[in-house]
């Protein structure tokens, strides 16, 4: 440490960080020069549909367990208590619905891009609109995802900002472009192990530094960090059971139900059953990730400062946690590269240009490489923005997911919806998303909730029970409801326009593109009635003497 208080990496820390990048690159090179050597688009984009459920489930979890979450979740728990932990409740429906509705439908349609569904159900124009919206969403987030951990590392350790950005971007781009989806999935597995190891190590040392489990518990309890369940139905309250447990379901569906990065993994499974099982197995993985992040928030203030300050006497531990942080970044960015290359190739190029399989594979690799370069360029754009615009860019990622979810729900659950209604609904959903999201961001006043010192015996400042009215009420809507609001707008407007312009007739709907809601509900009701009758029949009645 220098006289200014700046912390620095030791040689061991640099070695551990370098090993992460080398190992990730080695995995990519292994799959580039073994097996089919990524010589076909089927292998490059979908791993020859040969992946097993365990690596897929870890990859599905790692894809959106970004560096922003690794830093942000502990900071949220420290500042506002454990209320955020209740988001784990939304994981149940948020994964059950994709497992039983979205995955079987997409798998049976033999899609190569999730946006192919939109053409099968509606028309090519809807497919292109969905694809372009997804590309816009992911390109913005790529720059934020790679810049955020590099900026945090630079601010705390003096690590060269653009050295970190370029190293991460280059390694990620190369192993994605060379090794295809197999490399992305298996590096995700490796990086998940690094993430969990780094988080667990920091928690163990943090608890030890606090004096043990009992002393740590007393401190977080007396500091008001342990939050009870908040059943306040006010949708403008940032985090309650309803915003997290119900609003979070729509966010989960947009991520694990219709996002290309995730659907591409489901479709790479050997069988439909394994695809569904991989979705089931994401549940415990996400719960473990959430638990570790929340526990970190209970033992520290700001993650990186805590690591570099209190853990400086443990050689290699700061490097391990930074490796954990960048593992989260690598897993997210590599998934973005691969999915973007896939939708660009399948949805925008292949339908208009005929080419040989070898040329298509080469072009797919070049697309992945190109998106890597764009990622670094976007990181520079983010660097030129101030912090408030950075937050807006992060919000855009979440805001765009809701309208896309609504578009797919419109097609899957409403046979009467037509193409005009789909396009108009998507446009209305995007307008609503940016209006409420950006309007709320600009109108939001600085929070008056104070972060309590760790030895405080007071509780967190109570939130006012007054509910904003009019536009202020809409702008004050909790960000956890954005996906629900935007997807509902797409469905509502889409249905209205469909009925105004002539609803789609049942015979005109492509086979397998609509989920039989009524038939499934009737079947479920019949089973429940049959089970109830069985349980109450005389031969099943237990007699007590």
UniProtKB/TrEMBL annotation:
Biological process annotations from GO: inorganic ion transmembrane transport; pantothenate transmembrane transport; sodium ion transport
Main localisation: membrane
InterPro entries: Na/Glc_symporter_sf (IPR038377), Na/solute_symporter (IPR001734), Na/solute_symporter_CS (IPR018212), Sodium:Solute_Symporter_SSF (IPR051163)
Gene: slc5a6b
Residue spans crossing the bilayer: 12-33, 53-72, 84-107, 128-147, 159-181, 193-211, 240-258, 279-308, 320-341, 362-383, 389-413, 420-442, 479-499
Name this protein carries in UniProt: Sodium-dependent multivitamin transporter
Record's subcellular location: Apical cell membrane
Annotated function: Sodium-dependent multivitamin transporter that mediates the electrogenic transport of pantothenate, biotin, lipoate and iodide. Functions as a Na(+)-coupled substrate symporter where the stoichiometry of Na(+):substrate is 2:1, creating an electrochemical Na(+) gradient used as driving force for substrate uptake. Required for biotin and pantothenate uptake in the intestine across the brush border membrane. Plays a role in the maintenance of intestinal mucosa integrity, by providing the gut mucosa with biotin.
Family stated for the protein in its record: Belongs to the sodium:solute symporter (SSF) (TC 2.A.21) family.
An MF annotation (GO) of this entry: vitamin transmembrane transporter activity
Coiled-coil region(s): none
GO cellular component terms given for this protein: apical plasma membrane
NCBIfam families in the record: sss (TIGR00813)
Highest taxon of source: Eukaryota
Reaction catalysis annotation: biotin(out) + 2 Na(+)(out) = biotin(in) + 2 Na(+)(in); (R)-lipoate(out) + 2 Na(+)(out) = (R)-lipoate(in) + 2 Na(+)(in); iodide(out) + 2 Na(+)(out) = iodide(in) + 2 Na(+)(in); (R)-pantothenate(out) + 2 Na(+)(out) = (R)-pantothenate(in) + 2 Na(+)(in)
Membrane topology summary: Multi-pass membrane protein
Keywords: Biotin, Cell membrane, Glycoprotein, Ion transport, Membrane, Sodium, Sodium transport, Symport, Transmembrane, Transmembrane helix, Transport
Species of provenance: Sinocyclocheilus anshuiensis
Subunit structure: Interacts with PDZD11.
């Amino acid at each position: 440490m220098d006289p200014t208080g700046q912390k620095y990496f030791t040689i061991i820390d640099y070695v551990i960080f370098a090993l992460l990048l080398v190992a990730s690159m080695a995995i990519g090179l292994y799959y580039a020069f073994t097996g089919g050597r990524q010589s076909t688009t089927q292998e490059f984009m979908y791993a020859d549909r040969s992946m097993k459920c365990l690596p897929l489930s870890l990859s599905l979890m790692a894809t959106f367990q970004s560096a922003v979450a690794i830093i942000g979740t502990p900071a949220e728990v420290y500042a506002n208590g454990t209320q955020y932990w209740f988001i784990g409740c939304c994981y149940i429906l948020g994964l059950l619905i994709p497992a039983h509705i979205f995955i079987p439908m997409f798998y049976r349609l033999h899609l190569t891009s999730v946006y192919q569904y939109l053409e099968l159900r509606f028309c090519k124009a809807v497919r292109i609109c969905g694809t372009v919206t997804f590309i816009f969403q992911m390109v913005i987030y790529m720059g934020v995802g790679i810049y955020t951990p590099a900026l945090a590392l630079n601010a705390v350790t003096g690590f060269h900002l653009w050295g970190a950005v370029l190293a991460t971007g280059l390694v990620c781009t190369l192993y994605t472009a060379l090794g295809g989806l197999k490399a992305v999935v298996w590096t995700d597995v490796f990086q998940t192990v690094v993430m969990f190891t780094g988080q667990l190590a920091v928690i163990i040392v943090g608890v030890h530094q606090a004096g043990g489990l009992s002393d740590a518990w007393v401190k977080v309890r007396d500091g008001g960090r342990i939050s009870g369940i908040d059943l306040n139905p006010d949708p403008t309250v940032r985090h309650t059971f309803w915003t997290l447990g119900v609003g979070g379901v729509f966010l989960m569906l947009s991520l694990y139900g219709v996002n290309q990065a995730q659907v591409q993994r489901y479709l790479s499974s050997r069988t439909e059953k394994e695809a569904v099982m991989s979705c089931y197995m994401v549940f415990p993985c996400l719960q473990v990730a959430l638990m570790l992040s929340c526990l970190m928030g209970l033992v520290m203030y700001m993650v990186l400062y805590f690591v570099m300050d209190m853990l400086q006497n443990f050689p290699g531990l700061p490097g391990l946690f930074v490796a954990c942080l960048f593992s989260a970044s690598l897993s997210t960015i590599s998934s973005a590269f691969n999915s973007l290359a896939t939708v660009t190739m399948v949805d925008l190029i292949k339908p208009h240009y005929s080419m040989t399989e070898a040329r298509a594979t080469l072009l797919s690799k070049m697309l992945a490489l190109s998106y890597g370069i764009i990622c670094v360029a976007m990181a520079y754009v983010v660097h030129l923005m101030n912090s408030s615009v950075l937050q807006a860019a992060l919000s855009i990622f979440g805001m765009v997911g809701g309208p896309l979810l609504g578009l797919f729900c419109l097609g899957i659950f409403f046979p009467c919806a037509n193409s005009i209604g789909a396009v108009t609904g998507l446009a209305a959903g995007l307008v609503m998303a940016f209006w409420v999201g950006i309007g709320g961001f600009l109108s939001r006043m600085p929070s008056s909730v104070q972060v309590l010192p760790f030895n405080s015996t007071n509780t967190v400042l109570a939130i006012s029970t007054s509910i904003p009215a009019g536009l202020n009420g809409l702008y004050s809507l909790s960000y956890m409801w954005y996906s629900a609001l935007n997807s509902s707008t797409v469905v509502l407007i889409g249905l209205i326009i469909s009925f105004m312009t002539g609803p789609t007739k049942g015979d005109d709907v492509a086979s397998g593109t609509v989920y039989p809601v009524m038939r499934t509900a009737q079947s479920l009701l019949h089973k429940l009635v049959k089970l109830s009758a069985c349980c109450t029949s005389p031969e099943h009645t237990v007699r007590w003497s």
